[in-house]
Design brief:
Largest sheet: 5 strands, mixed, barrel
Strand content: 25-35%
Number of strands: 8
Helix content: 25-40%
Strand order of the largest sheet: 1-2-3-5-4
Oligomer: single chain
Distance between the termini: 71 Å
Length: 214
């Protein structure tokens, strides 16, 4: 038999079950593991802790491996000052799922118990994102040959400025690679301008005007 809930009842029930799950998880013995990772957000965590003299914890740390990361926290006394943001470190940590109060969902977070900087990080740390980039196979694709593009140059029939000549001069040698057609129209006449644009069937339409505007 299914229970009929409104949205608030559904949310209350979900939160209640998450709290029961959190209580169960907190009662379990946590497993300790060793990770090699890049530590991030350490400076900002230290700054936040310094703002609150009673705080002895560093929160919102990240242990990264390329594009992958897990959240972490640690006691201030655990991480010595010689450990800095971006360093490759070896950590002993406990991990467990936690309840995200913000999203009402489960997340994984590591509690750092011990940390040390690696002497030769390249021997221990693998940036999987960089590795994938290095292993990319070259796949050269030849651009397909197309017909020479047809271009229409549209400008005002009332302008005294030689905007068409200026534009063609700016194209320089590249005008040899297009089929160019020129048209003039009264740019102030919306109806005539719209009709002219609709009648143009070339690949590219360029509208220019004098007075410095293109």
């Amino acid at each position: 038999m299914h229970q009929k809930f409104n949205f608030q009842q559904f949310k209350d029930s979900s939160v209640s079950k998450l709290e029961l799950l959190e209580t169960f998880m907190n009662s379990q013995v946590l497993e300790s593991v060793i990770l090699v990772a890049q530590i991030e957000n350490l400076d900002s965590a230290r700054q936040r802790a310094a703002q609150y003299s009673h705080s002895q914890m560093l929160y919102n740390l990240q242990l990264k491996d390329g594009a992958n990361y897990i959240k972490a926290h640690a006691s201030i006394s655990i991480i010595p000052k010689c450990i800095q943001d971006g360093m490759i470190v070896e950590v002993i940590c406990q991990y467990k799922p936690i309840i995200s109060k913000k999203n009402d969902c489960l997340e994984i977070e590591a509690n750092i118990l011990k940390i040390k900087q690696l002497e030769d990080p390249e021997k221990h740390y693998i940036d999987h994102t960089a590795l994938m980039l290095q292993n990319l196979k070259p796949n050269r694709v030849i651009f397909p040959e197309h017909e020479t593009p047809k271009v229409t140059l549209l400008y005002s029939n009332a302008s005294q400025a030689l905007v068409n000549k200026d534009f063609l001069d700016a194209l320089d040698y590249q005008k040899n690679y297009i089929i160019l057609d020129t048209k003039t129209v009264n740019l102030s006449d919306v109806k005539s301008l719209s009709q002219t644009i609709n009648d143009i069937k070339t690949d590219i339409l360029i509208i220019i005007r004098g007075g410095g505007g293109i």
